[in-house]
Design brief:
25% helix, 33% strand
Length: 150
């Protein structure tokens, strides 16, 4: 699939102990808010994909924070407007969900051209803002995941 994106991606929910969640607004689609996402490159490990995407999309040094593999995958239909990025005939993507707690809200440096805005939001508001059902559902799981970890 040289030259095409892999239909394997990560979703990284970045959050604080107060359950504020970082969301990014897509440049090409104003109003489309999401967590950090991105496709695997080559044969990189999924955790490495997640760390790379966090760095690229936010400027956060993810090696300084715990990356949590939520061991959750979602399969979804790729939006038709984005299918040209994938090999012919590819219509579905498998997304692997990760979490990354930060000690507090912090300023980020969004990827130019990819994201036009960013915001920290309380988890319920963040879930409501997400255009993706997989992102919404992951954020809605956050309080239960935190409770299990303590």
């Amino acid at each position: 699939m040289t030259g095409f994106k892999q239909p394997v991606s990560v979703l990284v929910v970045i959050y604080t102990p107060a359950l504020d969640v970082l969301l990014l607004e897509r440049s090409a689609h104003p109003g489309y808010w999401q967590s950090v996402t991105g496709s695997r490159e080559g044969d990189e490990r999924l955790a490495d994909t997640a760390r790379r995407e966090v760095a690229e999309e936010t400027g956060i040094d993810s090696t300084r924070h715990q990356l949590q593999d939520w061991r959750l995958t979602n399969t979804f239909e790729i939006f038709s407007e984005w299918r040209q990025r994938y090999a012919p005939g590819i219509t579905r993507n498998i997304e692997h969900v990760f979490g990354m707690p930060l000690p507090e809200v912090q300023s980020i440096s969004p990827a130019p051209g990819e994201h036009r805005n960013w915001a920290w939001m309380p988890w319920q508001q963040a879930a409501e803002q997400c255009f993706s059902w997989t992102n919404r559902d992951a954020i809605l799981m956050l309080p239960a995941r935190i409770a299990r970890a303590t």
